[in-house]
Amino acid sequence: MHRNVRRIVAAGALALPLTLGAAGIASADSYDSSTVSAGPDGVTTSSTHASTGTSGARDDGGNGANYDQNNSSAGPDGAGNDYTHAAADGNGGASYEQGSNWAGPDGATSSHTGSSTGGSDSGTDSDTGNGGGGLLGGLL
């Protein structure tokens, strides 16, 4: 009888911290990763960042999310980079950008694609006096 009571108490004592720890993992609001490598043929870097809470362009009360991915490399044949950025705010605004740049002995190139939409809060933006809203409203 005492053995069963001890087991139940021990299991309960272990279950609470494990449950709280799992909840903390599930509610993480950011992720970061980076890699750098260098060798005789050049150097490369890569980084990824994702987060929730604010959209990055302006504070929307904690309802935004964003994602950034960047890669760069340089070597004997040239240097270049590429990037991707996506964000959404809590008002229905969203943006996406993707681009790349490269320069080498035979020339250079650059490309960029972007798209955005305003949020559902119509009228004048209280921070800037500009109409509309959304992710880019605070930048205008």
TrEMBL record:
Keywords from UniProt, A to Z, are: Signal
Question: From what superkingdom does this record's organism come?
Answer: Bacteria
Specify residue ranges for compositional bias: Low complexity: 44-56, 106-115
Signal peptide location: 1-28
Gly residues bias: where?
129-140
* Disordered: region residues: 30-140
Q: What is this protein called?
A: Uncharacterized protein
